[in-house]
């Protein structure tokens, strides 16, 4: 299973990794297993990061702020050129879903390990993506067919669909540029707030409107698509435990789905890939209601933070498959892979849950990761490492596997007890508290889980 894609004579000479931290390390490891030399870029603030130490070659691309380093397309392309790279892996975040970056790679005769620029533009526009899915007969959330240009138009559509409604940034992601209007009285203010945030976050104030799903579950299907259009699905991930639309815990399989719904969602994901002409690794995200009706929400045109969950239950190395598919290898296995056992990922962040999740930085004075069967740690931490102020608060991903969900939860709790990270505040104890809440233990949770249990979690 691990050597999934069939070998091809076209090999990459060297891959540049246009990212940092744990995801850069993740790509380095995949490159090593494929015997491909790799180059890490880094900012001045990341000079002591593990991804710099572990790469075959390194290039500094600027100072700490991302706008001066990890978002500088000319600097990254230049680093690839001077080190003789013929392919670039974007990781996730930063430029991973920037079609201009894809075009820059292609213009420099380098392979972008991901989908093409045109596909990325289409699927990156949430409104256009929804139209493509509708034409492809994939269930979509009732909403506007394209951009909603005015408050009055939003009000008319909300009256048609019925409240509550979600107002979303067409170019959005990660919960930014998204507002819930519970009633007509909310439309004006929420529309303006969503537009303002969308303009600030994405440089694009375009909005669209959707009917808000009652009691939603956020469930996504991992896909890999080769250049022949063959699609492999790696089961689903339930990402419903979220804080302000930011995922905290992911698991596979979802405790909310039954076998029939799981199969239908996999078929819908395959249809979505074909409707969009997708290629490489990606994720089809759905909202699933209380009755297990599912609706396309968006497509992520990259590897995701939570990809290890799918790897643990299928045995497929997603990052390695990304590289192999990008160089032209074909998938010998297509369709749905049935998961084995149960996996859970806990995102441990440098933030203070007791103080509105305020980001925290500092030096790691003691670091002891957990061990034992079924434990995986994806992290760039080490004792003495200083967390920079410029980047995302994610420190480490604790991923556990066991034969079934109750056993996986117990293993996760045990691993959290073993995990020692000292010198800065993290949300590790919050995860332990979540694992003990009856609704989580019984798999009865929605995207409102954190808010509904805020008092019990002391947040």
Task: Explain what the structure shows.
With 459 residues, the chain is of the alpha+beta class. It has three domains: 15-113, Rossmann fold; 142-211, ATP-grasp fold, A domain (Dna Ligase, domain 1, 2-Layer Sandwich); 217-452, ATP-grasp fold, B domain (D-amino Acid Aminotransferase, Chain A, domain 1). It has 15 helices and 23 strands. It has helices spanning 21-33, 50-54, 73-82, 99-107, 117-124, 126-135, 151-161, 184-202, 259-276, 307-314, 318-326, 405-418, 428-435, 438-441, 449-452; strands at 15-17, 38-42, 57-60, 87-89, 111-112, 165-173, 176-181, 207-211, 217-225, 231-243, 246-252, 280-288, 294-300, 335-336, 342-349, 351-352, 358-359, 362-363, 366-368, 375-379, 386-387, 394-402, 420-422. The strands form six sheets. Strands 9, 10, 11, 12, 13, 14, 15, 20 and 22 form a nine-stranded mixed beta sheet that branches. Strands 3-2-1-4-5 form a five-stranded parallel beta sheet, with helices on both faces. β6 and β7 (176-181) form a beta hairpin. The longest helix is centred in the middle third of the chain and has 19 residues, at 184-202. It starts with 14 loop residues before the first strand and ends in a 7-residue tail after the last helix. The model has no long low-confidence stretch (mean pLDDT 95).
């Amino acid at each position: 299973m691990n050597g999934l894609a069939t070998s091809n004579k076209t090999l990459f000479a060297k891959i540049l990794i246009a990212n940092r931290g744990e995801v850069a390390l993740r790509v380095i490891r995949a490159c090593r297993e494929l015997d491909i030399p790799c180059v890490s870029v880094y900012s001045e603030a990341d000079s002591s990061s593990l991804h710099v130490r572990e790469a075959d070659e390194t290039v500094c691309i600027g100072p700490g702020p991302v706008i001066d380093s990890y978002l500088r397309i000319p600097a990254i392309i230049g680093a690839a050129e001077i080190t003789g790279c013929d392919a670039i892996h974007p990781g996730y975040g930063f430029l991973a879903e920037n079609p201009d970056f894809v075009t820059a790679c292609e213009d420099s005769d380098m392979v972008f390990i991901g989908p093409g620029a045109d596909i990325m533009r289409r699927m990156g526009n949430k409104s256009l993506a929804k139209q493509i899915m509708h034409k492809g007969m994939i269930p979509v959330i009732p909403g506007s067919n394209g951009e909603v240009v005015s408050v009055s138009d939003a009000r008319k559509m909300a009256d048609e669909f019925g409240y509550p409604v979600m107002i979303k940034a067409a170019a959005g992601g990660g919960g930014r540029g998204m507002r819930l209007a519970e009633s007509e009285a909310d439309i004006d203010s929420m529309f303006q707030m969503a537009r303002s945030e969308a303009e600030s976050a994405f440089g694009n104030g375009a909005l669209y409107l959707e009917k808000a799903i009652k009691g939603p579950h956020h469930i996504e299907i991992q896909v890999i698509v080769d250049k022949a259009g063959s699609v492999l699905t790696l089961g689903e991930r339930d990402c419903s435990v979220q804080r302000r639309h930011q995922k905290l815990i992911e698991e596979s399989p979802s405790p909310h789905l039954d076998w029939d719904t799981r199969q239908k969602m996999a078929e819908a994901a395959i249809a979505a890939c074909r409707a969009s002409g997708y290629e490489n690794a990606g994720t089809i995200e759905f909202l699933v209601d209380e009755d297990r009706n599912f609706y396309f929400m968006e497509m992520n045109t990259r590897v995701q933070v939570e990809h290890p969950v799918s790897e643990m239950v299928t045995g497929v190395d997603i990052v390695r498959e990304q590289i192999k598919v990008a160089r032209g290898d074909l998938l010998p296995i297509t369709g749905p892979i049935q998961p084995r056992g149960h996996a859970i990922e806990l995102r441990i962040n440098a933030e203070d849950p007791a103080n509105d999740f305020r980001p925290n930085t500092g030096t790691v004075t003691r670091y002891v990761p957990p061990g034992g069967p079924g434990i995986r740690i994806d992290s760039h931490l080490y004792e003495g490492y200083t967390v920079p102020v410029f980047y995302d608060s994610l420190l480490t991903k604790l991923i556990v596997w066991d034969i079934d969900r109750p056993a996986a939860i117990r293993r996760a709790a045990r691993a959290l007890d073993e995990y020692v990270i000292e010198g800065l505040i993290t949300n590790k104890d919050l995860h332990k508290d979540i694992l003990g809440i009856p609704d989580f233990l019984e798999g009865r949770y929605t995207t409102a889980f954190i808010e509904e249990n805020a008092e019990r979690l002391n947040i």
